[in-house]
Design brief:
Length: 249
C-alpha cells in the first residue's frame, strides 16, 4: 500500500461513526461543570455542598417565615437580599433545580426558587442549620419546630361547610361549561357550587384548593369571595375532595 492509499484509508477511518462517538465521549468526560469546575458532570447534576447548604437554608428560612402571616412574601424579600450578596450560588441553584438559564432575570429567579421551596414536596427536614453563626442550639430547635409545624399544617385540611344536593338523572347529565378550564363536555353532576353562586368543575376546584396555603382562606377564582360553603351533587365528588376538606354540615 502506497502513501496516498494509506492516507485515504486513514481519512475514511476518521469519518467512521465509531470514531466520532469516541471523540464525543472524550469531550464529555473532559467537560467541566460551570459552577464547581469539576469534570464528569454539568450544573444540572452538580452535587456541590454549597448548593445543598443553600437549599437547606431556604427550607429553614421558610420555617422561620411560616410563623408570620405571609411566609412567601417575606421569604422572597429575604431571598432577594441574599441574592445581592451571593448571586453565583442562587443562579446556580435556579439553573440546576428550577429550569432557569444564565441570562434569566433576577426577579424570575426569585419567583422560581420560591415556587420550588414552597412546593408541596415530601422531603425530610434538614437536621442542622447551615450558616448560622455560633450554632445556637435554642435557635436551631425553634426553627426546626416551626418547620415541623409547617409540615404538619400542610398535611391538614380546609374546613368547609359541605352540602350534598343530589340531582335527578336528566339534570345530572346536562352539559355545562367550566369558567376556569372552559371544558364544554362536563356533566352537571361533576360541578361544585360555591357560596358566592359561582360553580366550577371538580378538577378545577380541587386544583385551586391545592394551590392555596392552608394558612389562608380559599377564595372563588372569579370574584375572590371567601369560600365558606360548597354544594356538590354526587357522593363521588365529595369523596374526591376528602384529602383536602374536613366536612361540616
Amino acid at each position: 500500500m502506497n502513501f496516498a492509499e494509506q492516507n485515504a484509508e486513514n481519512r475514511n477511518s476518521l469519518s467512521q461513526p465509531r470514531f466520532m462517538t469516541r471523540v464525543r465521549n472524550i469531550i464529555s468526560r473532559n467537560r467541566r461543570c460551570s459552577f464547581c469546575n469539576e469534570t464528569g458532570h454539568n450544573i444540572l447534576t452538580c452535587n456541590d455542598n454549597r448548593l445543598t447548604n443553600f437549599k437547606h437554608l431556604c427550607i429553614l428560612q421558610k420555617g422561620i417565615f411560616y410563623l408570620t402571616n405571609n411566609a412567601r412574601f417575606y421569604f422572597k424579600q429575604w431571598l432577594m437580599n441574599y441574592y445581592i450578596q451571593n448571586s453565583e450560588i442562587v443562579k446556580a441553584f435556579a439553573i440546576s433545580k428550577c429550569n432557569c438559564r444564565l441570562n434569566t432575570l433576577p426577579e424570575f429567579i426569585i419567583e422560581q426558587i420560591t415556587n420550588y421551596i414552597f412546593e408541596d414536596r415530601e422531603e425530610p427536614l434538614p437536621d442542622y442549620i447551615p450558616l448560622i453563626e455560633g450554632h445556637n442550639i435554642a435557635a436551631q430547635a425553634l426553627i426546626l419546630l416551626s418547620l415541623e409545624g409547617y409540615a404538619n399544617n400542610r398535611r391538614s385540611k380546609f374546613i368547609i361547610n359541605t352540602n350534598i344536593q343530589p340531582l335527578d338523572v336528566i339534570k345530572s347529565e346536562e352539559i355545562c361549561e367550566c369558567s376556569i378550564c372552559y371544558g364544554d363536555e362536563l356533566r352537571e353532576k361533576n360541578f361544585i357550587s360555591l357560596n358566592c353562586n359561582h360553580k366550577f368543575c371538580k378538577d378545577c376546584f380541587k386544583g385551586s384548593l391545592e394551590h392555596t396555603l392552608l394558612s389562608q382562606i380559599p377564595t372563588c377564582a372569579l370574584c375572590r369571595t371567601e369560600i365558606s360553603s360548597i354544594k356538590v351533587h354526587d357522593e363521588s365528588v365529595k369523596n374526591d375532595l376528602d384529602e383536602l376538606i374536613t366536612y361540616i354540615n
